[in-house]
Amino acid sequence: MNHGSAAVDARRTATESRPVIEARAVTKRYGRQPVLHDVSLTVRRGDIYGFLGRNGAGKTTTIRILLGLVHPTSGEAWVLGHRVGVAPPSWLRRVGVVLEQPGFYPNLTAYENLALHARMLGLPTARPDPIERALATVELLPLARRLVRGFSQGERQRLALARALLHEPEILVLDEPTNGLDPYAIRDVRELLRRLNRERGVTLFVSSHILAEVQRLCTRIGIIHEGRVVEEIELTRLHQLSRRYLELEVTDAPRTAWLLENRLGITDYQVVEGGVVRIFDAPEPALVHERPEAISEALVHGGVGVRRLAYGQDSLEQHFIRLTGGPTGSPTGSPTGGMADHDGAHRR
Ligand SMILES: Nc1ncnc2c1ncn2[C@@H]1O[C@H](COP(=O)(O)OP(=O)(O)OP(=O)(O)O)[C@@H](O)[C@H]1O
């Protein structure tokens, strides 16, 4: 047995499970105006982290603090194990950034724009050419010699990504990367980001106000509302939240839980407030999805009154709206961004 390599593996695992981006109780005020309150978030290596919030929620401010572009009023930001604003910013070389509305020199070609940036970064002129490689990654190589002036918004966005990828960063931070793009361009950007994560192991931090977009792309989601992170959640957990369930309003929730587990072998359920129990699945799924009366009978038999029985599905949109306080404005973004509110016998 090779103890040395086991130790290295253990060390590597410990390093990899450490957050690569972290905000600890970050607060920001502009003058007297509070913008961020006690924001804490954690991004791990390999995550595609969606930072979701309505317009003005504080996404850009948080991103600027994480990148050291703005100082927090209090709290700490950490990137790749370095305290932002305290450690020398050498870690920035390991981070690629696409901020909103990226600027380019319109009268230079795509290649020339990236060449300027490469020179600023002090990238060595090497073979294979890193500029061509970055352009190829975003499928812009055929437009390399075209003036940026004539680029569509989608092409500009991909060029911004190419620029962020020039130095092959470990982390990409993107502020609303699909803003203003049509559904096809949005899909292209999404697939590109997914590929970067899967094939090159790039950790992604992506802000968005479009719920469906975040749900399609991200593995972990932080929801910010009025300057507070109201939830951080894994996508798998969100899927659970949007599952179809059988909802029962009962006279005795604790006894219902006992009967479900001990008489029916059902463990995939949730007790909600007010004597409401949601059953997601059972060892015999038909029991939940086709024969709910059998459950009701078993409960009545066990001494529990069943006041109401209905199917429901807590869509992600409902969940988000609940957390961020109502459907005013555009919480889910474009028409393509809204999620279906399914049959929803149960609505709050
Ligand atoms: N430099 C500044 N001075 C004063 N207030 C600011 C400044 N920058 C941002 N704000 C305020 O902070 C709040 C959060 O802005 P921020 O840009 O972080 O939100 P956002 O979630 O990125 O919004 P959007 O999705 O519209 O870009 C807003 O109310 C904004 O007006």
TrEMBL record:
Q: Which PANTHER family match?
A: ABC TRANSPORTER, ATP-BINDING PROTEIN (PTHR43335)
Top-level taxonomy: Bacteria, Bacillati, Bacillota, Limnochordia, Limnochordales
**Keyword Flavoprotein: yes or no?**
no
What PROSITE patterns does the record tag this protein with?
Answer: ABC_TRANSPORTER_1, ABC_TRANSPORTER_2
Provenance organism: Geochorda subterranea
Which GO terms of the molecular function aspect are on file?
Answer: ATP binding
- What this protein is called in its record is ABC transporter ATP-binding protein
Q: Which CDD domains match?
A: ABC_BcrA_bacitracin_resist (cd03268)
A Pfam family hit: ABC_tran
Q: Where is this region: Disordered?
A: 324-348
Reply yes or no: does the keyword ATP-binding apply.
yes
Mark out the compositionally biased spans (Low complexity).
329-338
Q: Which family does it belong to?
A: Belongs to the ABC transporter superfamily.
Residue ranges of every copy of the ABC transporter domain listed in the record? 21-251
What keywords were assigned to this record?
A: ATP-binding, Nucleotide-binding, Transport
